[in-house]
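ok, trying the design again with the full structure, not the truncated one.
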């Protein structure tokens, strides 16, 4: 498997968590979420983010609300629901456990930051 393919799979596996984390501090609209995640290695386009937002909303993890009084065009704002916060806490714990395990394996293999 090419390194780029592996990196893409790794990125895709964390997108749902990253989107929930970007929205968790308070409601945000799509472009705000994209801008928030632009500063990470998880740069997302509208074609990627909106299907994730729709799925998370369908699953009851996000609440969506159209707001028309904050600019020239209505914006759809997303907020994490109580169920979404529970899932976010669970996903965060699982992710931290996973990364600690991988970090330990990397250390044991003495790979470090070698190219």
């Amino acid at each position: 498997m090419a390194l780029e393919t592996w990196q893409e799979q790794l990125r895709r596996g964390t997108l749902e968590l990253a989107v929930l984390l970007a929205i968790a501090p308070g409601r945000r609209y799509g472009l705000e979420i994209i801008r928030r995640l632009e500063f990470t290695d998880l740069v997302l386009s509208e074609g990627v983010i909106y299907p994730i937002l729709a799925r998370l909303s369908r699953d009851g993890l996000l609440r969506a609300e159209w707001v028309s009084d904050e600019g020239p065009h209505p914006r759809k704002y997303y907020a994490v629901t109580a169920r979404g916060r529970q899932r976010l806490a669970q996903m965060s714990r699982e992710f931290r456990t996973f990364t600690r395990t991988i970090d330990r394996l990397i250390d044991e293999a003495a790979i470090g930051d070698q190219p």
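Keeping the full-length input from now on. The chain is about 60% helix and 10% strand.
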